[in-house]
Every structure is written in structure tokens, then in C-alpha cells.
Write a structure and sequence with these properties.
Blueprint: H1 61-67, E1 73-78, E2 100-105, E3 111-115, E4 122-127, E5 132-136, E6 151-156, E7 165-170, E8 174-179, E9 184-189, E10 203-209, E11 217-222, E12 226-231, E13 236-240, E14 254-256, E15 262-264, E16 267-272, E17 277-279, E18 285-287, E19 293-298, E20 302-307, E21 312-316, E22 331-336, E23 347-352, E24 356-361, E25 366-370, E26 379-384, E27 393-398, E28 402-407, E29 410-415, E30 432-437, E31 446-451, E32 455-460, H2 465-471
Antiparallel strand pairs: 1-2, 1-32, 3-4, 4-5, 5-6, 7-8, 8-9, 9-10, 11-12, 12-13, 13-16, 14-15, 17-18, 19-20, 20-21, 21-22, 23-24, 24-25, 25-26, 27-28, 28-29, 29-30, 31-32
Length: about 475
Amino acid sequence: MSTKRKRAPAKKNAKRGKRKEESDIDSDLSDRSDNENTTQPDEVLIAGHGDALDDLTQLPEELLKTIIKPAGQLLIFGQVHWDNVGKREIKPTPKMYPNLYVPHIFTDLKVRLAVSGCVAAHSVIVTEEGKCMTFGRNPYGQLGLDDTNTRYSPTLVPGLEDKNIIGAACGRHHTLFLTDTGTVYACGDNRSGQCGVGNLQPKIMVPTRINYRGPPIIKVGCGADFSAILDIKGGLWTFGLPEYGQLGHNTDGKFFKTSTKLCFNFETSPKRILIYIERTKDGHVSPVDFPEIVDFNCGQNHTVAIDSKKRAFSWGFGGFGRLGHNEQKDEMVPRLIKFFDFQGKGVRSVQCGSTYSLALSDLGILFMFGQTKRTGEANMYPKPIQDLNGWNIHHIGAGFTSILVHADDAIIAWGASPTYGELGLGDMQKSSTVPKEVNKLGGLKVLGLTMGFSHSLVIVNNALPEVQEKLKNFQTFTP
């Protein structure tokens, strides 16, 4: 006779509402998660996790040269009162910061990397020396500072002081950090296992090494409540919330704990994606030769990846056509995007927003699939953005509903209302449904850019005297 293990009394059953994707924009960044009342079957920690005996050797020098970029001056624009980002109700606080509708100088530090996420109200910056700093909203300790206080100025992360940080990623309420030894640390909300530490401890307050034993990691990415890491051999590993198939493990992880209580089997440690498929128009499914993944990017609940043959794969939540398969079906495993599987249509980089995806082809054409605004027609399959034809695109940033592109010597931005200054177009024109040059940034050499839920960070090369002169006309944001 089998015996059941006793558990603590369950909380009152909560009805699951509509999918996050279909809910109102303002609630997408709330501090509460739909998965708060779910529980996980018994978790298992991998023995030996975090051993001091681990042989941590630096990644190859040639690879580090391609990852580590030059440092420059950091600019910020958009909504900077972090506690109110994405909230319907504006909570008055002793000091309120107005939206920045034009780019402002932010910090005197030389910054080589700035990272945020399409559903994030916090950011990570890395200084020229490789020191890691964080700022923004912090209800789950996602800043890694061992507290839950919001930070308006970049603050050094104590647990990473002796590490050389070369990459980072921001989810809704969690953060991943990548060191030059290919080691990943995580902090923040872990109620869905998205920090990958092997358990469901609700808050990880300081950067903690993830529960992973495999080849060194060269890139990290975060969706809203899940994470992905790419190893040096081209293997992609995912962990966290499996609700829409965004982990790519051929399951949405759902099970009924009682007749009315729906729960998820969260993936609390990195698990490698093993199946990649191709589906024909008549529905026939065949496996794809195991691809070597070279790049990927995570949206709110979906992922797009590209392999060494420049093929693109997508999986996760399929609403609004963001997966590029000309249908709105969720994909549980990576599926080949047929549109790009032709000569001359290879993909060289991808970027994902909340409900859309951007792919830059080998020929320099930028394609968009999905929907950036809440009304109107969605792109069910990749369509070129005609306004950018002929531009030489260098960097792409995708926010919640806004896009920032560095092409030639210009920054081009667009996003439908409501916007909060993240386009940098000024307070006379806060939104634009068509790509428009950000005049204030014209002629500046951009070294990198990123977008959060409603803010933008741009790094510009300030080594040249003419650039320094131009930057004197910029206002400074001093929290």
C-alpha cells in the first residue's frame, strides 16, 4: 500500500485568470506572480554544487575579445521612477522622478556593458574594469544587494566584486550575471525556479552560482519568469517557468494538484534542449540535425535562437505571431522558422520584445514578426521593416512595445502610445508608429544599447573631443 507524504496545508485555491499575455499592459510588471500559490514536487539538489574545487579557467582570449566591448559614456531616457514602472496606480513617494523624454547623461563612470529586459524595471551596468553595478526596482532582491530597497543610482554588487563580469540578463524580477570564466550567478525572484539554483527558495538576495555542471557558458538570457544559457559548444539550457513551452522541453509542465488547483513542474536547474524540429504545411513533423546554437534572445514568454548554419528557431508562447510560423500556436520545442531557411535569407542576429521578435538577415534587412502595439494587425510571419531599407544596422534594442535601432551614425526609434520617453524623441512627440531618427543622438558613435520595460540605456564613445563637446549640451540625470 502506498503512503502519501504529508505536506503543509495548501493556501486557498486561486482561480487562474487570463494569460498574462492578454492582460492589460499596466499589470505586466506587477510585483505579484500568477504562480505564487503553486507548489513544486520534491526538489533535488545536485551533489557538490558550488564546490571550491571547481577548476575555473578563463574563457579563450579570442572569444573574450569579441564579447568585451570598449567603454564609453552612459545615457538614459524614459521612465526612471522605478517603483511606478508598469503600474496602473501611481504610488506617491517622498521624491518623484519625472520621465526623461530626451537622452540624459547618467553617471561619471566609463561603462562597457548596459543590460535590461523587455519586462524589466531594473538594469545592470558593467564598468570598464569589469565591476558590476545594478539599479532599479528591487522587490525580490534582483539587484543582488541583499535587501529589497529600490536603487536610483548604480550600486556596486558586493558579491561580484572579485569577478570580471562579461554578460548579464534581466527578467521581470530576476537577474543573471556571467563571468569571464563562463560561470553564471543569479539573484532575485525564484518562485518558478528561474534562478536555476536547484530549489524554489522564493527570493535569492545575493548573486548565487547556478546549479550547473557543463561546458563554460558564453551568453545568458532572461524571459519574464524563465532563463536560458548558451554553452561554448553550442548547447542551449533553460530553466524556470514552463507554462507556454518556453523552456523548449516538450512540455508546459502543468498538473492538477487537486481537481481545481493547477500547478507547474518548474525546472529549478538548467536542462539542455535536446529536440529541434521542422514542421511542413500539412503538419508533418521531422527532427532537425542537432544544431550548434550561436545566438539567442528571450522575449516575455518566448525565445528565438540561431545556429551556425544561420537558421532560426523559435518556441514558447505563440500569440500575435511572434514565433514567425504564420500561426498563433504555442511551440513546446524549438521549431525551424521556414521563412529564413532559404539561400540568402540566413539570420545573423535576433532580438525579442514582449510580444514580437526582430531578426536581422545576412543581407542587412531587419524583419519583424508579432505585434508591438495592442491594436491593429499583427505580423504572423517575418516582414521587412521597409523604412530601414538601405541602413547599415549595428545594434537593436527591444522594449515592451518600443524599438531602438542603431544604424549608420543614427539612432532610430519607434513605438506606439503609451510611451514614457524611452524613444528619446522629446516631450513634443512622445510616441511614433513609424521609425524616426532621434535627433539628439545624431552623429554620436554608439558602442551599445539596451531597453527595459519603459526606459533606454545607450553607451556612446566619448573619447573624441568633438563628442565631448556635443555631450556638454546634454542634461545630466542625478537621482
